[in-house]
Amino acid sequence: MPADAGQPAVAQVTQVALLLADDGDKQFDSAPSQVPLGAVQLGGWQVTSVDPVPADFPGQDAYLVKLNYDLALEPEVPGLRWFEFGVSFSALADGRPAVLDALPRNVVEPQGPTAFSLGRHLGFVSSPDGAGSDAQLPAVAPFVDVFGVGTAGVRWRHVSRDGHLVRPGSYTAWIVLVVPAGRDKLEAELTARYDLAPDDALGYRPASRPARFQLSLPEASAPRPGRGTPPAPTEPAGPVGPKTPRVFISYAHDDQRHVDAVRAFGEFLLRSGIDAHMDRWDLDFRRDWYQWAAEQITTADFVVVVASPICRMVGNGEIENTQRRGLQSEMSLLRELLHADRATWLRRLLPVVLPGGTVSDIPLFLQPETADHYLVADFTVPGAEDLLRVITGQTPHLRPAIGARVNLPPAP
After folding, report:
1. CB within 10 Å: which end of the chain, N or C, has fewer?
2. Spatial separation of the C-alpha atoms in residues 357 and 25, rounded to whole Å
3. Nearest-CA neighbor of 20 among 10, 8, 12, 29?
4. Residue 307 bridge partners (DSSP)
5. 112 CB-near residues (< 8 Å, 6+ apart)
6. Partners of 295 in the beta sheet?
7. pLDDT in tens, 163-180
8. For 90-96, what is the mean pLDDT?
9. If we measure between CA atoms, which residue out of 300, 379, 303 comes closest to residue 346?
10. How far apart, in whole angstroms, are the C-alpha atoms of residue 62 and residue 207?
11. Nearest CA to 175 among 51, 301, 50, 3?
12. CA distance linking residue 199 with residue 188, whole number of Å
């Protein structure tokens, strides 16, 4: 399906700097400073037009994009607990780009080299024999999570497991990108996030410096009028795509009734296709619960804080330090993360009120009255729609396109 004529557009090399930063609050250094840690570098990636565009996408052009990105660390850095690389697009005029599919998808076990073709709905379909493939994905090591498919941006998270750190090296990814027809450029933004082991961070916080540039799009190799729907390989039954974002549920063990309600809530999220995690499901062996909670919180896309009287008391510091120590550690970590990077963690921390609960039981640092909170009326999609939309990134209202500017003649 990708065009054969002409050469694919090759994007310029650019990179996102990885830094260790402090805000000038250390006793030995009163001025803010940044320590270079490395970079995630994007280079040698290719953009190829897809022709003809299926009839399901009227008024749009489609592109197959191959991205090669490198994690490069300074020599003294042993490795990362996890790192995340993302790219988002915006048009220079009206209309919004969208990433329809992305490779690799979620990888939980070693995956050998794989060939893919584009299906009739511009999704990647596995080609076991490799015949007529449009994308070749090299071997992928676990664990990889992908987020943002269906939106204007996509990001891949590489996570270490079993005590092994994520090492530097090269990675390959593919996306299918659709844009309003006739566009020849897009604005692109590259972002990266990461985490070090506590002993390696030396009290600094992980930071990064995003990169922005204009991406030139190649011309389509076929005329726009009269595009038909191309023949497509057989697609597997059922939806094909990444799983939804990872959610960690933080809650207080007020009483057995509340614990049962939270467990039912977590099971509802799982039934809704959300990768939910909570302590009740990780009792299979002896754990360091502080380390477990820190990993769950920092690797989750969203942290749901379930409101309750004990949760409010612990979050507000109204309880003895010898009581509820596990929840006190979680709340302290959440406050620290929110203070260090409010723009990021205000979006990721979701206060939730379950049936029978009250907004007044949300800890004050989560701003129960001046920021959003989410009421769950019952464990159904309509009863939890606002929360599900935020977690899955599905807005209820799309902003209309900007029309022509009104022409107002001068007054007499």
Report:
1. C
2. 39
3. 29
4. none
5. 139
6. none
7. 778 878 889 999 999 998
8. 69
9. 303
10. 34
11. 50
12. 35
Residue ranges matching CATH 2.70.240 in the chain: 9-216
Residue 385 has pLDDT above 80, yes or no: yes
Buried b (16+ CB within 10 A) or exposed e, 374-395: bbbeebeeeebebbbebbeeee
- Between the CA of residue 202 and those of 22, 58, 196, 242, what are the distances in Å? 10, 53, 10, 35
- From CA 219, how far away is CA 221, in angstroms rounded? 6
List all residues 6 or more positions away from 74 whose beta carbon is below 8 Å from its beta carbon: 36, 37, 38
Least confident of 2-11, 269-278, 312-321, 349-358: 2-11
246-392 is classed CATH 3.40.50.11530: yes
Q: What pTM did the predictor assign?
A: 0.53
Contacts of 334-339 with CB under 8 Å at 24 or more apart are 334/250, 334/297, 334/303, 334/305, 334/365, 335/365, 337/297, 337/298, 338/365
CA gap 177, 102 in Å, rounded: 9
Burial environment of residue 243 by CB neighbours within 10 A (0 to 12, 13 to 18, 19 or more):
middle
Residues in a beta bridge with 56: none
pLDDT in tens, 282-299: 887 777 888 888 888 888
Cβ atoms of 77 and 165 closer than 8 Å = no
CATH architecture of residue range(s) 9-216:
Distorted Sandwich (2.70)
Displacement of CA 92 from its chain's centroid (Å): 24
> Hey, what amino acid is at 381?
V
Torsion sign, CA atoms 6, 12, 18, 21:
negative
